[in-house]
């Protein structure tokens, strides 16, 4: 038997040190997750003592497309995710590259771009709800003023476009924040590598492709993972822009789960939450692998 | 050495296993079965005295100051008592009030929305019964059934609102409107007349589900084959593809040209401003927007009207009302005597009048004198033949959203048939 005490062995009391963290983890993650699994197998409404066990029916219904509202929310969420991850990552990386130098102007412009990140999602939603208003919003007003009425949009009222407009708002609100993370990552890349690349005759694109992109990989992975999770949880922004409950064209997974809870379907909402966790996990793993492959090939 | 006296040695794996087992045991014991805590129910006490400080849970932050004054009056008469308002935003209240109130720590007295929330709260045993309370007789018999379930009075609806378009009386006169329409053709003619006067006939916030759906009340009140059509849609007895609903959707399509551009994406706030600036003849939400428009500075006269979607002789109702803000006593509270006294205080016609005139809303208490000019103008509607707002019959939010979204889709350009089919598909899924 391996003893905890003895020469070269850590003192047993050291194992108590992680205990506070373990307790917090158990209370705030393990217990709710175990409860969610338990609830997901019932038709509990959230308040009455009676409930029926439904086994895996809830999960089967969701996984087999038996709930078109959930499927619609998933489709909207993946569209939202794709648009936000691509645009937000590219925009924040582009801004970071442009504002990398620590000059006074760069620092000022960085803070301007960062400003939306300190606003609450609800404030952002109210600002953009006004901007997107089809009658008094500045976009349609400006288009009307220059005779481009044909380009005026219904924005959030257009079911085919609504989720893209919300994605634009999300990008506006968070690109500056992620720009700061990219700047921190880019500033870690040694200047020597760029000098060596220039000596080898590399142009700006080749320097980016063969030096910046591979070395900014860890930062990009963080940015993409963060953006992904953020996109799945854009709950307050959606409710602020689309009302509660949001219409079908704006419904994403988090708002769908919330509506299901509000609808006193706790068991079913718990099943949706479990699937939600699994989807985020799967998407994050896939993204990390895709990113690793891209950057290995660079 | 006997084994019982040997020192206990723990290896690393054993220690971690122990921690894990303890965590899982704790998790398992914490996971008492769903529904393991249930509400109490039972009758609220009668004839007690108010000696506690109670929590009054509601969602109307805009009424806070008026309630503060009313609470001061309550405390004047009950020196040992107090009331603390526990106010949540209406959306939060709608979604989480039951869970918050069940423990009894907050909301010794509380309020409920009519419809799904009231029904759920009754099922959860949250309401102490009020049937034996004398002060319930001070409420209009027309409205008290809203707070009943199976013949028992659980709550008392306090507010009455009219969920039908409000209109600018001055603008109607300028446009030459001498009489309000009594049928559908007349309503379309009114819209045409307003459009000819260069104003938007109907401002409709199709981008906000809650406000947009208020028009649904008056559009369906006379078209539906029965008053309980919402219940019947949820029971599968009526379908969105039925003729009466297709007719309703067709009428929405007829109204679309008279609404502001891109109506299905419009938020209510800009439309209130449009209405306030006298650029729209009607704001198709409800009487609750009269006070909001006044707050924007409107000085013109306002009244309410409802589109009659049938011929005059086929119309069953003149408009739509809703009785809500259902007052109740928490069955889990240990301060029920004070909570009952608080409800009794609110039921006094003078106090109810203070609330009504202070918040610009009608109340269900009899004998109230309305001094607010807008309330006085609309007061005759309290005795008109109005339907109890049908949209609150829906107990399933997804069914309600699907049915109401069909109306928005039609205004957005979708055909009534397609919108009805899509709505019915969701309804079928939800009701199983």
UniProtKB/TrEMBL annotation, chain A:
Subcellular location: Cell membrane
Family as reported in the entry's similarity comment: Belongs to the binding-protein-dependent transport system permease family.
Protein's name in the database: Sugar ABC transporter permease
Membrane spanning residue stretches: 12-31, 78-100, 112-131, 162-186, 207-229, 266-286
Coiled-coil residue spans: none
InterPro entries assigned to the protein according to its UniProt record, in alphabetical order: ABC_transporter_permease, MetI-like, MetI-like_sf
Membrane topology of this protein: Multi-pass membrane protein
UniProt entry tagged with the keyword Transmembrane: yes
Superkingdom, natural source: Bacteria
Keywords from the named record: Cell membrane, Membrane, Transmembrane, Transmembrane helix, Transport
Annotated source species: Nocardioides pini
Pfam family, one: BPD_transp_1
Domain ABC transmembrane type-1: 74-287
From TrEMBL, chain B:
Pfam families associated with the record: SBP_bac_1
Top-rank lineage group of the source organism: Bacteria
Name listed for the protein in its UniProt record: Extracellular solute-binding protein
UniProt lineage: Bacteria, Bacillati, Actinomycetota, Actinomycetes, Propionibacteriales
